[in-house]
Amino acid sequence: MPLKIRRLNIFHFWIVFLLILALPIAREWRLLLHGERVEGTVVEMRKFGPGEEALIRLTEFRAVIEYRYKGSTRTVIGPENMKYEIGTKIPLIIHPEKEDEYMIASITGFYIHRRSIALIIVLLLWVAIYTTIVQMQKGTVSGKKQKDRYHTGGIYRTGGRNRIRGR
Predict the structure, then answer these.
(1) In which domain, by residue range, is 63 found?
(2) Which listed residue, of 1, 37, 71, 126, carries a Cα 20 to 30 Å from 144's Cα?
(3) Please, what is the angle between helix 10-21 and helix 116-138, to 10°?
């Protein structure tokens, strides 16, 4: 029995597309709601080598960011391979109790990291699935060969031209 797919339109496409784009933000919702906004300053760019368990042996650069919270100075290490000038002010959202739980409060903080590759793959998969479903709904994709509607004996019409079958 063939799978019955309801009618999809461009509205459905954009809703799912925007929901996929919201995944990185939704992942950090607790920190966004309950975190404290502070401003950090890049004090140094450090070079980090690969760890012992690293599959790919690459050197990465990370910003060392200092910020003040409740009278004390805290330091966090920024995301990999995001180069900042020393002295750059960066908005942060920090967890009040856990010093190591923070995020950069900007578009790059949400989308520029290693997990972005998975997001791009999911978006491409959605585009491929949507396109296939729409083509199936239009009847342009089928598992069976469709017979020519205009077939008449050995000659059939295609776009105003006559063709002889077998040539």
Answers:
(1) 31-52+59-112
(2) 126
(3) 170
